[in-house]
Amino acid sequence: MQIETLKSLFKKHKEEALFHRYIHLKNIAPLLKKLESKCDVSVIGKSVLDKEIHSVTIGNGPKKILMWSQMHGNESTTTKAVFDLLNLLTSENEVSNLILNTCKIMIIPILNPDGAEAYTRINANQVDLNRDAQNLTQPESLVLKNTFEAFKPHFCYNLHGQRTIFSAGNTNNLATVSFLSPAQDADCVITDNRKRAMELIAVMNANLQQQIPDQVGIYDDAFNINCVGDTFQTYNVPTVLFEAGHYKDDYAREVVREYIFQSLVVSLKYIANSAVSGDAYTPYLSIPENQKLFYDIIIRNARVEANGELVDVAVQYQERLKEEKVVFIPKIEKIASLNDFYAHKSFDAKGSLVKTILNEDIYEGYENDLVIVNNQKLSLKLIES
Fold first, then answer.
1. Domains defined along the chain, listed by start
2. What pLDDT is stored for residue 246 in this prediction?
3. Which residues contact 113 (CB under 8 A, 6 or more apart)?
4. pTM of the model
5. Active site residues
6. What does the DSSP assignment read for 232-268?
């Protein structure tokens, strides 16, 4: 698809009711109600705290795709994107007609509603649902497994978000979007099934490279049978991991939201038009693997004690829920020589002492919007546009 077409579709169908990072059931309830006239909106189970887990099903075609978002409650970017997608699919246009005539799509917008409301990765029982694919100890895990077995998808989309720490390869390029065709066995053999997922990723990457060149990565494919993607891959259902990452200054993840939307549309249109045999998988192998090379801020050439050696002071924002809004708290993460690391924002201390706001020695773990550099206040606060 032409990039301008994709951008136009996003602009027209972006769900304006969803924005920033804190998305939970209260936010999507009116949207689900609105979709009832055009989709099959169902309650497919309950969470630990008895919150409803919904599915939205649309399309009449023979090719079935299952998507789920917010398995980790604090990873909401893909939830915004699936509602943008649903706005597109419920409108009359050439793209939606093609997809819906050839595909049947089931979306679980928020698999972990308790975690979404608390803005935590884990569920209310303190369990990471993406490590519960085998033991199935949690009601949310059973909802997904039962839905998978009942729907019998031909493709699965496992929708997540990743931190700002990731680079696309061993470079200073941000991992704005990452993908993975999960391993199917401990040896990470490139099976025919994995090739089909790789082919879809290659198609999405080709589109993204035209807009964010060298900012797409591949997530670590070490096999873990307790992860949902790896488990579903062992069932010979091609499963694609999506990771909504970081774009410059996009802490609200609104820019990345569009790239996820585009990737969903491009891949669904490809499935609609193609057999997805796996023969076209090789471009996937050239996508660099993610590395953890970024901090949010690095204060370069600093001293933390008089006459001490020059070091770098790295800051990582801590995401906290405060009064129904996600705020970003600066925390000193590392004090060391960080020549091999990059930052989303850098300051040069030029050999000056870096102190706490109380003019005490700076230390790892210190949290504050301000530090003292050369006896002057330096703000570390995130200013969002």
1. 3-292 (3.40.630.10), 294-379 (2.30.40.10)
2. 98
3. 24, 25, 47, 49, 51, 52, 53, 70, 73
4. 0.98
5. 309
6. HHHTT--EEEEEE---TT-TT-SHHHHHHHHHHHHHH
